[in-house]
Structure formats: C-alpha cells, structure tokens
C-alpha cells in the first residue's frame, strides 16, 4: 500500500511542478514515460519472477524514476542547470530506502541526451536505467514526438523551417543546452530525433522505435514536399 501511496504523491508532485510549462514537457509527458517504462520493463522481464532480470523492487524504481525524471529539467530552470533537489527531498521525506533513492537519482541524472552528446561514459547500465531512458526517448519520436517538437519550438518562437540554417553536424553539450539557440524546429529532427532509434538500449525499445522512426521519415518527406509546393 505504501508504494501505491508514494506513486500517487509523486503524480501530484509532477503535476504541481510542471504547472505552467508548455505541453512538450508537462505532466502528461511524465505519465506517458511512466507507462512506457513499465511496459518495456515487463517485456524485458522485470515483472517476471522466472526472469534473470526480475527484482521485486525494480518496477517501483522504474515507475518513480520515470515519473520524476523531468522535475528540475534545465530547460525550465533559471540558471540552465538540472536541479533534482525537489526529487531528492521528496524521496527522503517518503522514507524510501537509501539504495532505491540513490538508484532513482542516478537514473534521472544520467538519462539525458546531452550526456551522450558529451560522450559521457558514466551512464547506469542496469535494466532499470535502460527502460526508463528508452521510454523517454520513445516519447520523443513518432507522432507524439513530432507534436512535442513543434510545441517546444513554438513556445520559444522558433521558425518551423529555414533552408538557410542547416542542422548542426558537430553538436556539443554546450550548444545543445544553450537556451539562446534559435535553430528551426525541423533541424531538431536531424540533430537528435532521427538518431534516437539507434540509441535504444533494450530490445523492446528497439522494436518500438522502428515504427516511430519510419513515421518521422514519412512526415519529413511530406513536410518538405508541401513546403516546396510539390504536394
């Protein structure tokens, strides 16, 4: 019962902290990532006692990490730095076991695309980490991903597309995180979204990413044909 109550409190915290954000990183996003992560976890055997990956505590870690992963996201902080102090305080106040809290914090701090742009090699290789990260990335591609991309770009007054501004090929952590960048929204597909399929870490994530990736390719083909007056 305590676990279910903690999840409900976590959901309330997510809704409170995401209030006022644009819809690309709102509470609905966190809940979708939670649902995806739990679904991937089941496929990867975390919910099956006969599986080598099974742990009675794993699904709790996955659910809480997925729900809380965007609290303190640098894109919505004043100093452009991740701040997960709210998450840490919440987990401590709820009396979550220390090792679970540390696991959740490590997952959240390690899962961002910016870390792989910086070629960071300290990511958590556990199944729990992999399913949460894959779930977050699945929500960034496909139909939902397209909607989120333009929602975020619109919130920053970025143009849809500008043929005179090519996608950046040598993306660094610094310019990826730079809030002053005014790259057209279409460039985000080439700089990040189209790369995510090959960055999935679980077999379940890889399978699901295939269809979402193809949907984006079809969308981009149609977009450019319409932009150029050919459709």
Question: Percent helix among the residues?
Answer: 55-70%
Distance between the termini: 56 Å
* Number of distinct beta strands: 0
Uncertain runs: none
> Could you say which structural class the secondary elements and strand pairing correspond to?
mainly alpha
Number of helices: 11
> Roughly how many Å is the radius of gyration?
18 Å
What proportion strand? under 5%
Proper CATH architecture: Orthogonal Bundle
- Chain-averaged pLDDT: 90
What would the principal axes of the Cα set say about the shape? globular
The total number of structural domains is 1
As for the CATH topology, it is: Hypothetical protein af1432
Question: What does this 3D model show about the protein?
Answer:
The protein has 231 residues and is mostly helical. It has a single domain, classed as Hypothetical protein af1432, CATH 1.10.3210. It is built from eleven helices and no strands. The chain has helices spanning 2-18, 27-43, 58-68, 85-93, 98-110, 113-117, 127-138, 142-155, 173-177, 185-191, 203-227. The longest helix has 25 residues, at 203-227. It is globular, with a radius of gyration of 18 Å. The mean pLDDT is 90.
Task: Based on the model shown, name its key terms.
mainly alpha; Hypothetical protein af1432; 11 helices; 58% helix
